[in-house]
TrEMBL record:
This is Alpha/beta hydrolase. The lineage of its organism: Bacteria, Bacillati, Actinomycetota, Actinomycetes, Micrococcales. It comes from the Bacteria. One of its GO terms (molecular function) is hydrolase activity. It comes from Herbiconiux moechotypicola. Pfam families: Abhydrolase_6.
């Protein structure tokens, strides 16, 4: 099998730039990488968009999802040319399960008390609601372990997630048919690490690496993230 194209899928309150250190290292090692912008409008819509990106790539694809991006790759990963999934501090949803249901089974993280809800217009319908992290809380809650100057930039450029995405159930779970790997960020203040551990164990991930890392593990520990990705590719053969 030729080396797969690595598609990095960002999560809520972030954008493609959140993967910049990992992207640079993978490119330097000669891998083909794509880092699409996720709309963050709905789980079903975001997954359909990422699947459309994947299906237009010639050859095999390894999907890597961070945080909410884990839920997105869980659904989009059923695309025929996806050969594996990598979860980073992510939600490994089961079929019929929503983000709210999975997270609701565990004690709240520090995130819930630091969210901002903002209405946005929807053409021909009721206004939607954007969810973002309070700017002053972002460095400690979401970007702990990241250089404070970088964290402040990330805080004011975060990509909100529509509240709709929290309640939508995953129609499929790609990990049921595709091999998967994952990183648990044990110092995560955005997602309770037990949410990650539970989802990964249920999904039967081939390898789970636990790192004393914050939620933005690909910014704080890019070398470890790159190693898991390249190890997964080596295992796929």
């Amino acid at each position: 099998m030729p080396a797969p194209t690595i598609v990095l899928v960002h999560g809520a309150f972030a954008d493609s730039a959140s993967f910049a250190p990992v992207t640079r290292q993978l490119l330097d090692q000669g891998y083909t990488v794509r880092v699409p912008a996720v709309p963050n409008r709905s789980l079903l819509g975001d997954s359909a968009y990422i699947r459309s990106v994947v299906e237009q790539i010639e050859g095999p694809v390894l999907l890597v999802g961070h945080s909410y991006g884990g839920a997105v790759i869980t659904v989009a990963g059923v695309a025929e040319n996806v050969v594996g999934l990598v979860y980073l501090s992510g939600y490994a949803l089961d079929k019929g399960e929503s983000l709210g249901q999975l997270q609701g089974g565990f004690p709240d993280s520090d995130l819930a008390a630091n969210l901002v809800y903002t209405p946005f217009p929807v053409e021909g319908g009721e206004p939607g609601t954007d969810v973002s992290v309070k700017i002053d809380a972002f460095p400690s809650v979401f970007a702990a372990g990241v250089d404070i100057a970088d964290a402040e930039v990330l805080a004011v450029s975060q990509r909100p997630l529509a509240a709709l995405a929290f309640g939508e159930a995953a129609p499929v779970a790609a990990w049921k048919t595709k091999p998967a790997w994952g990183i648990v960020s044990s110092a995560d203040h955005t997602i309770n690490p037990d949410v990650e551990r539970f989802g990964y164990q249920r999904a039967g991930l081939r390898t789970v690496v636990e790192i004393d890392a914050p939620h933005l593990v690909m910014r704080s520990h890019p070398a470890e993230v790159v190693k898991l990705i390249t190890d997964a590719i080596a295992e796929l053969g």
